[in-house]
Design goal:
By secondary structure, the chain is an alpha+beta fold. It has helices spanning 22-35, 43-55, 86-97, 132-138, 147-158, 186-190, 193-207, 212-217; strands spanning 9-13, 62-69, 72-80, 108-115, 121-126, 172-175, 180-185, 228-236, 243-249. A nine-stranded antiparallel β-sheet has the order 1-2-3-4-5-6-7-8-9. A hairpin with a 6-residue loop joins β8 (228-236) and β9 (243-249). The longest helix has 15 residues, at 193-207.
Length: 256
């Protein structure tokens, strides 16, 4: 669920049998997309990740994400980057796309988001300590003047005052050519599901964000412990406001 407009139905799911070995899920998923008539992502990028999956140990392999709204149906593959292949995969992806490597030396590439039928790739990094200087340096050039807005939104969501150093914030970073996202697990940022829901709705009210769909979907977790929050994301992009995205599952599942 996201606060971006117009409203879009979004989900992320396993799309091959859970009994399939993680190392085989990307290849099986590409075959599934082809059988459904859905274009495959960039062949060079998928070939690079298929090689890494054959050569290294994986936890979950690949998942499928869908986006559906008035503009049509769009699909994305989330592909795990094995720990042992992270440096090589990032080097090859940045060279292929003509983009700069991740500038923080402690950052590790964890997964790649591949849009179907395009060469667009999102890079998801696990990072350690973050500072405002890091955020300004990571943001696309045209967004750096607004980097403080991302920090302010994160501090408001966490109900704490963030200084130059985001001390104690368990955060990951996602990069695209036009956006910067800070994301982290809801349980770490906001606490258990009931508390997370209350704090998210309060944040939405303060920020004048529309989370009515989220409120309806998550009503069961306040009384019956139905549903579990996953990753929360704050995105600085072309929209005037920082976008909030909430990952929520009706069941307890392992997710990327």
């Amino acid at each position: 669920m996201t606060t971006s407009a117009p409203w879009t139905a979004r989900y992320t799911t396993e799309f091959v049998s859970p009994e399939q070995a993680p190392a085989d899920r990307l290849a099986a998923g590409l075959r599934r997309l082809h059988s459904l008539g859905i274009p495959s992502p960039d062949e060079g990028l998928t070939a690079l990740l298929l090689r890494a999956h054959r050569q290294h140990v994986l936890m979950w392999g690949a998942w499928l994400s869908g986006r559906h709204d008035d503009a049509g149906d769009r699909f994305k593959l989330y592909v795990e980057v094995p720990r042992g292949a992270a440096i090589r995969v990032e080097r090859e992806i940045t060279a292929r796309l003509g983009i700069l490597p991740f500038p923080l030396p402690e950052g590790r590439l964890r997964l790649v988001g591949l849009d179907a039928a395009s060469s667009h790739a999102e890079r998801y990094y696990r990072v350690g300590r973050l500072t405002m200087s890091d955020i300004r340096g990571l943001a696309p050039v045209h967004l750096r003047a607004r980097a403080d807005a991302l920090s302010a939104a994160l501090g408001d969501l966490l109900s704490q005052s963030l200084g130059e150093d985001f001390y104690g914030v368990n955060a990951n970073v996602t990069l695209t050519p036009s956006t910067l996202t800070i994301c982290g697990p809801a349980v770490s940022w906001l606490g258990p599901d009931r508390a997370a829901r209350d704090r998210l709705l309060a944040f939405a009210a303060r920020s004048r964000l529309d989370l009515s769909q989220y409120a309806a979907l998550t009503s069961g977790c306040t009384t019956q412990d139905h549903g579990h929050h996953g990753i929360l994301s704050l995105t600085l992009g072309p929209d005037p406001d920082v976008r909030l995205t909430v990952g929520f599952s009706p069941f307890a599942v392992n997710s990327p």
